[in-house]
Amino acid sequence: MKRSIQKALLFMTGAALILLASCSKAPESGKHIPKNAAIVFGFKSKQIQDKLAKDGLTIDKIFETLQQSDTSNNYAKALADAKNSGIDLQGDVFFAMVPGEASGNMSMIVVADVSDATKLEAFVKEKSKKEVKAGKDFKYVEDNNSVVGFTAKTMIGIATIDQGSRYFDSEDSAKPAAATGAALLEKLFTLKADESVATIASFKDISKEKGDILFWMSSEALYNMNGANASGMGALMASNMKKITEGAFTTGSANFEAGKIDFDAWSYTSKELAAIIKKYPVEKVNVAAIEQYPSDNIFGYAAVNFDLRIIGELLKLMGMDGFANMGLSEARITLDDLLLAFKGEMTLVGSDFAAVPKPTEWDSTATKPEAKWIFSLKVGDKAAFEKVMASPMIAQSLTKQGDEYVPNMPLGEVSLSINSKRVLAASDAELLKSYDAGKGKAKLDGDALDNAKGSYGAFYVDVEKIMNAIPSKQMELPDSISTDLKSLLKSISAKSEQFSGEKSHSSGVVLFKDQSKNALSQLFHFTNKVYNYTNAKRKADEAMWGEPSTEAVAVDSAIVEDAATAAPAVEEK
């Protein structure tokens, strides 16, 4: 648990700092991103900066905070460079991953607005130590497999990655010729409208969203990066996968507001997949399966409801159903039997999360996470269900007694109950019995249950309840950080809507406990404090073990604790 908590902290730190270092304004710049792009990120800098300014966080104050807390901070240096680079920090910035023309190649592309081309030219010349060359209506600097070009209005950076270079030690494998970089830049600067992602309907749709961060992905382009050049059976699968990925896109947006982050996502399916979903429509989740959970201490749930035959149709489309049936032949059932036997109505509910003492011979204070839970799965076609349960695969583990299938061997702490109506698994027999009686009444905070009502897939976790159950001492963090961590997030929820025939919409909310300040400014303050702590701890560890360090630090827990709060306070309005 200790390592998991630390990993989560590092992830949150990195994510928030990357956002602050690279936020920017989106759409129009899609015209410089080629149509065959696999993934695109867009950032609306001005929109984000305006929100942060309401909490007293301007670019200057962010720089001042980072620089004063650690003069060697790479993020602070990058921010200082960005301020003097000639790049418009309130302009459009897009990041894109684009498959290369050669097998195994791909390019990472960044497109940004320019505020001062003279400054930018001086900046790239100083940083690259290379000559600034003249291209066709643009200037550029090239270094090995990277090139940066700019006009008076736009900057484009390209890093070409040859994945084969990881396996073949060839100096030239990842280095395009000098003319190649200029040619790539010229192509992007002069892309015709129908050659860019800007004309793709799904990209135009997401570009209109109000989100601070935008995301677009082409399933077909992403798959082609790895599967397009397969041979033999792989080539057959690649051909079938094309039917699933062709015309399939995923888009999303994230919006930072006071006390929350709103997420929206849209999935655009291929014609083949749309036909399958139309044939087997997804149904609403069974809210009653959550409501009958007998507890007032629920920390989360997940629920979905779909026809499992969709999986069978996908396997057939991929040409894999024959392999599935071969694998099931020894059990004397078919793939169709298995998918008909159960409905895709599945629910998982958890409660009573706790960190219970679990001392070891090395650590008498160790704990382990424990929770109560129920998983339910609804039975579908009765004849198919009985055939599956009578198969050798199941019969060796379960014995039928009346309408109940009883395990032949103990399952440890897990309790299992199967009959012709449902499958239930639980953390203990008492909870399973109470849940199955259907007389329980779930109690969830606020409108947590409303999240599932009317949805076709729902997820909810009460972060506050889980964090409060973890002893601070088990986090191995200073009190100031563990306290802030416990008081940061309230809950995370998500839900999906009905498929419209062309696309489906899902949404989610990360709710913060402090509803008065913007979610991004809260993340900045918290992650900056974590950075200060980890940086001071690193220096203390280096001093303790005699490793080289740029700065001597006394090994004292009080110093590390102080470092957690060493960042200068940022004035808030």
For this entry, give a set of tags.
single chain, about 575 residues, alpha+beta, 20-stranded antiparallel sheet, 21 helices, 20 strands, globular
Number of helices: 21
Instruction: Determine Rg (CA atoms, Å).
Output: 28 Å
Q: How many extended strands? A: 20
Q: Give the CA-based shape.
A: globular
For the termini, the CA-CA separation is 38 Å
State the share of residues found in helices, binned by percent: 25-40%
Mean pLDDT, all residues: 83
Spans of at least 5 consecutive residues whose pLDDT stays below 50 are: 1-27, 165-179, 230-234, 549-556
Describe this entry's structure for a reader.
It is built from 21 helices and 20 strands. A hairpin with a 2-residue loop joins β9 (about 250-255) and β10. Helices cover about 35% and strands about 25% of the residues. Mean pLDDT is about 85; it is low at about 1-25, about 165-180, about 230-235 and about 550-555. The protein has a 20-stranded antiparallel beta sheet, with helices on both faces. By secondary structure, the chain is an alpha+beta fold. α1 packs across α20, α8 (about 220-225) runs antiparallel to α9 and α14 (about 335-340) packs across α15 (about 380-390). The longest helix is centred in the C-terminal third of the chain and has 27 residues, at about 520-545. It is globular, with a radius of gyration of 28 Å.
